[in-house]
Every structure is written in C-alpha cells, then in structure tokens.
Design brief:
This protein has a single domain, classed as Orthogonal Bundle (434 Repressor (Amino-terminal Domain)). The protein has six helices and no strands. The chain is mostly helical.
C-alpha cells in the first residue's frame, strides 16, 4: 500500500501545500514529507485527520493507496479510469 503517494496526489489535486496540509492535520511538515515519500507511516487517527482535511472519504484514500497486486482481480483499464475519476472529483469538490 502506498498511502503516502495517495496523500500526495490528493494534496496536489486540492492545490494544498505540504505545510498547509500538515498544519491543518496537526502534523509536522517534515513528518508528512517523510510519509509522502514512503519513509514513515501514519497512525489511523492521523490518516483520518489527513483525509478530513483533504475532504476525501477515508475508503477512497485507501483505494488510491492500493498497489496493483492488491487489485489484481480488477481490470487494469477500469482501475485507471476509476483513479482518474476519483482525482477529478477531488479537484472539482
């Protein structure tokens, strides 16, 4: 699971800086940077705060974080389309 990558995609879709997301989610900027690069992990409570700041339902954030092998049964073109749709919805919300 690549949760940090999913957080970064959503943050960028929302045009939030790393610092703004960190402040609103009550995390340090440096720690959130490490999370986004996959060098650290967040507690569930922290993930919930990040998802709330991003206005992304937690289950969609988890879906975006799933690796290909975790979604092997899903058709690749469907997953690509679903990913784009979710990120477009995040941008437009």
């Amino acid at each position: 699971m690549k949760l940090g990558s999913a957080i970064k995609k959503c943050r960028q879709a929302r045009n939030l800086t790393l610092e703004a997301l960190a402040n609103q989610a009550e995390l340090s900027r440096s720690y959130l940077s490490l999370v986004e690069t996959g060098k650290r992990e967040l507690s569930l409570k922290a993930v919930e705060r990040v998802a709330a700041v991003l206005h992304v339902p937690l289950h969609l954030l988890i879906y975006l974080a799933a690796e290909k092998r975790e979604l092997e049964e899903m058709d690749a073109s469907l997953k690509t389309a679903f990913d784009r749709l979710i990120l477009d919805l995040i941008k437009d919300a």
